[in-house]
Amino acid sequence: MEKSVGKIAEEALNLLIENKCLDCGLYDLRGLNRFVDYALIGTYTSRSHLSGVSRYLEEWLDEKGLRPLNRRPLNGEKWFYWDCGTFTVNLMDKESRDFYRLEDLWYNAGDTQNSSSSPTESYISSSKSSSSSS
Question: Which of 48, 57, 91, 122 makes the best surface tag, with the fewest CB within 10 Å?
Fold first, then answer.
């Protein structure tokens, strides 16, 4: 039986967490756009850390039979991006992460999982509300 995109994206998130990326998050973007269902984001701590995580990610994608549609550095090689069709992986240094604040772009997205939650106990919230009703 084929795994769902959400489960595969959670596995990719766990890979980032296991490889010590910081502030990892998986965002459910279904219903917010027509291009991607899930977006992963993580912060790398050094060029050698990025190199190692990238290698593990590429090996994992290959094992899963997933061929990224696009993979490239952005922002002068401080932000690395893999477009896997129904999900994306974004690895950024802290400076780029603080500057671009992708989470703010996805404020209506369901926060499927983040590195402060247990990798084996994921949750899905239908959406985040930016204000409470009176």
Answer: 48
Q: What is the pTM of this model?
A: 0.78
Tokens of 19: 């490889």
Element (H, E) at 2: none
Residue 74 contacts residue 81 (beta carbons within 8 Å): yes
CATH of 5-114, picked from 3.90.380.10, 3.30.450.20, 3.30.460.10, 2.60.40.10, is 3.30.460.10
| Dist CA 123 CA 105 (whole Å) | 21
Task: Please write the tens of the pLDDT for every residue from 55-99.
Answer: 999 999 999 999 999 988 877 789 999 999 999 999 999 999 999
Instruction: Categorize the per-residue pLDDT at 37 as very low, low, confident or very high, splitting at 50, 70 and 90.
Output: very high
* Best CA proximity match to 92, nearest among 14, 23, 18: 23
DSSP label at residue 13: H
Which letter does DSSP use for residue 51 in this model? H
